[in-house]
Amino acid sequence: MSEIDRQRNEVASYAESEGLALADVLNDTRDGLTISQVTETARSHGANVVVVPAEARLAEAYTRLAYELEQHGMRCILLGDPHPATHHGHVLVSLGSRS
Which among 1, 15, 17, 94 could bridge 24 via Cys, Cβ 3.0 to 4.6 Å? Predict the structure, then answer.
């Protein structure tokens, strides 16, 4: 199983345990997602929560991302160990409440 698949499974398990539905999964494998891209994607899906695996590149900007999302009424959850030994996969997920 690849690191990205592992992160997707971890986030999917978290969403299910919290009663949340996955709205979108953003893969950050090359160019690097910006805070504004993540915020706009989450807004377009009407997400309440954005989950960032600690291994994701954007996790390094967690404080700024959380602040920007808060301005739009969304929460940001950092999932996993914030100080991993390696950074292999990069997955971000927007979540919304199940209807």
Answer: 94
In this model, does residue 7 exceed pLDDT 50? Answer: yes
Phi, psi of 2 (to 5 degrees): -75, 165
In angstroms, the CA 59 to CA 65 distance is 8
* Residue 82 pLDDT: 63
Find out whether 27 and 42 touch, Cβ atoms under 8 Å: no
Give the 3-state DSSP-derived string for 2-45, with helices as H, strands as E and coil as C. Answer: CHHHHHHHHHHHHHHHHCEEEEEEEECCCCCCCHHHHHHHHHHC
**Neighbouring C-beta atoms of residue 90, cutoff 10 Å:** 22
Query: Phi and psi dihedrals of 76, rounded to 5?
Result: -120, 130
CA–CA distance, 44 with 59 (Å, rounded to integer): 21
Residue 97's pLDDT is 52
Q: Give the whole-angstrom CA distance, residue 21 versus residue 81.
A: 23
